[in-house]
Amino acid sequence: MHFFDDSLYPENQEKLVIQAAPYGPEWLPGDADDLPLTMDEHVQAAVDCYNAGATVLHIHVRELDGHGSKRMSMFNELMARLREAVPDMVLQIGGSISFAPEDEGGDAQWLSYDTRHMLADITPRPDQVTIAINTNQMNIVELFDDEDIEGTSISKPAYYKAYRDMVVEAGPEFYLEHLKRLRAGGIQPHFQLANLSQLETVERLIRKGVYHGPLVLNLVAIGGGFTGRHPADLIEFIRRVPDGAVLTIEASMRAVAPMNAIGIALGTHVRVGNEDNLWRHKGERISSVAQVEQMVQIANALGREIATGQEAKKIYKLGEWYADTDETLAHLGMVPNRRPGRRGSMLRDIQN
């Protein structure tokens, strides 16, 4: 993203879109005070986050036994109820579905490609499904302190090992087909990127004509194979994102607030919730709703306005698709592909 001298002035930045992730698929009941269990609790979590200022909802579904659901019927039921309860929210299904181990000796696994493809068939359809690009280590506990997981299920050695050894399976066989199915269903992909190499893969998909649509993405700065917490890496990623893209910052545990504060100041968007963080300060728990409120407070202190639900949908460019590669590159503020025989840098066409 290009920064002008006045780019840090809040009146020149997009209004802040806050994603809420209140369904914590890696946790079990009791790990977080506000972890939804029943369907009514799932819906109420969405309503509470929306009332606090969140306009995007990152969705997972939990069975009554506390484990993440893999039943499409439950996703369909929750989607229908959310459309009624929070009609102005952007409804975003978590593409991992559920990676929590089924029991203490199980693996924390992303589900098969075929199962994840079924997310394109949810009815009513979601606005977005998150999509991982390239197979990658996802050791979510690498940056956790002992205090972060004290008293939670992940403090148990078997669960800890399961999350330490977790891998995101997302090779070309997956993402090429998944992008095709999401486009056929009119569902916007929300790219969850672990590092710059994955951003480069997405750019290649755009330049090769595989994807024609808005570039909406999260930088997932959680370490363990993903980007970590070094501010220079965060800023470099922001710098490399095309001007026409929409970028949200996602971190873990007590780094969520400071990383997001940087993001708010630089004009990006933020994600919070018990899926990412359980703590306000060391030893003091914080709910998903309180995390949303904290982002509103930081934005207010900087003078940056909070987007309404309708404004978030416009910022995310929901419903937009582009005709071809050239149109996509133009909308994203990217220079054209190299023309045959053209040497040097490619420039945008000058309109007479």
TrEMBL record:
Entries under InterPro entries matching the protein: Aldolase_TIM (IPR013785), BKACE (IPR008567)
Cofactor(s) essential for the protein: Zn(2+)
Transmembrane segments: none
Keyword line: Metal-binding, Transferase, Zinc
Pfam hit, one: BKACE
Name of the protein described by the UniProt record: 3-keto-5-aminohexanoate cleavage protein
